[in-house]
Please model this.
Amino acid sequence: GGGGGGGAHGQILEKPRELLQAVVLADSYDRRMRPLTLDRPRCLVNVCNAPLLAYTIEFLASAGVEEVFVCATSHADQIDAYVRSSQWARATSGVRVRMVVDRECTSAGEMLREVYNRELVKTDFVLVSGDVVSNMRLDAALAEHRERRRRDRFAVMTMVFKRAAPSHRTRSLEDDTVAAFDAHTRQLLHLDAAGGRASSGTGVDVDVFREHRAVEFRYDLIDTGIHLCAPELLFLFADNFDWRDLRADCVNSIITSEILGNKIYGEVITNEYAGRVRDLRTYDSVSRDVVHRWTFPMVPDANWWRPVAELTYQWLRKNNYREADIVLHRSCVLDGECVVGAGTTVGARTVLRHSVVGRNCRIGANCRIDGAYIWHGVHVGDNVHVRRSIVTDGVVLQPSCVVEDGCLIGKDVVIGSGHRVAPLSKLTMRDVSAAADDDDGAATFGSSTAVPLGTSADTSASAFDDDDEEKEETVRVPVGVDMTSGKPVYAYRYSGPEQRSLPRNQLVADADAAATAAVAAGAISSSSAGQSAAVAAAVASMARVSGEFAVLVDDSSDSDSDSNSGTDLAAAHGFTVDDEFRAEVVATVHRRVAERAALDNIEMEIKGLRFGANKNQLDCARALLPAILTLPVAPTAAAAAAMGKKEYMAALVAHIRKFAPVLRKYVAGGEEDQVDMICTLQEACEDDDERHTTTATTTNTTTTTTT
Model:
């Protein structure tokens, strides 16, 4: 008889695979993006013609997330409609997106308590803000988080940070993070959002140094809004009803509490992209990063998201992106880094530069669109100028109107013919008093995330406060005359506490916009770099006090300007007159080199211009490099024209070597900053080619006429 077998012996029961889930907080619970968010949630704001939520869900889907819970309070119907019409509604999408709607929630804490009460999450999950744009792979970070959880059940969260210099453009000026980690375990020991620029230092409990042998302080990190969490985190929110804000309440309480023993760890990414559209400044920064392809594969020509109609973007020279069904007049110019959506027409002699134009827009002839974001269905008349502003859906800009720097034009606003919209204006067709329950969640409650730097969260004013300075205001103002009826056109000028208490929340810096406005009005003489910066700062100061920009006019100054002024010199070298800071740097470098000034003195003058115009180090590098390239290579123009290529290159290299120590100080942010400098070099060379082509054409025309 044989040894009788064991039938099903050796059978191994495999552990069921865990479903990777994510929770997306679609509401911002602050007012930073108003008045854009009066008509839509922040997560549906267009970034290069794609909704912000599309970037967030695509990031999660690419990272292997299989089920996404989108939590919404305000504008929930719009978010639900978008999700139902998106590619993730298809059965073959590979990710299931479900809505969690609670219109009574007033904070992120309450929404997470609602997720806990509905018992939606059972395992480790990804918690992200609805304003995240990232191409990060989560595999390694998740594996490390789970291994850490296996060793220590009190490890309830891993926060993901992105390394970036303090002056990096994607770092919100209100996110001044100082973080401290255990150098060996990466445990987060301290997180201060009000260090650095806001105060002279940051305070850390001395027990931190007693309990940890090596503590690492970091001031070069961006909070990406990506968190790898244990399900126990939701229980902590349910158990602590006073937790409202994820970072100010939850993270700080866990770090400083010694009772429960819970821990938070940090993960720092360096070679992947992660950014947040937290305010108007970061909206501009992230949009530029998409155009510059830092977010690859989420770039326009990948046609990665699917609206009602299929996308047909193509990537062309100078980082231009165009859909197939557009009409461009043969004399119009896309002057680099432009995105143009389908159904759009662009008229004769119109120039688009560093701008995004949505679908079904009509742009007339002789227009100048520079650094602007034109959303869908916008009508722009002839001879219109728009500079570094956001123009939302359905807006009509009638002929010859001007939209100055940093403006927000809300949905369906009509700007009358010939009207000038002052810098940093925010116009809307919505009266805030009638929109209390239909916005991004900020009208009915306050938020600790909207607290100014250096202010304690528990002292922040809410919408229920009686202080008039903390209330939102809309003033009905005329914005021109309707061309058809001849009647005045009105809109509401929006003013909220985020403009007064968060002056850095602007699409452009106050001083930059003020300088541009003053130059356009002929107010600032560029003969003196220091004087120009001082006037710009003074104008900006008046603007912050009064809420409007004063227009300075000096009719007698037209004959007093120096022939070597910054504006004239910038125009001579192919730069736009709007770039006042670059013009001043070019003028300063050329003047001081001609005077044989020491390099240290030149650097000090550039530093003064930088502080006067509220610029960062990378802005200085972008301005200094073209200034170096355009320095004279010979005593006279005739001598320069007679130089051979080798002689010319030798003289140019000598200039670059001389200024190399200064450039190295400005370009210290890693690979991204270096690539940015390569792009600046490319633009300077292209501008030089265009200038020489224009000069040659003019010379040939003159010769023919003379003959």
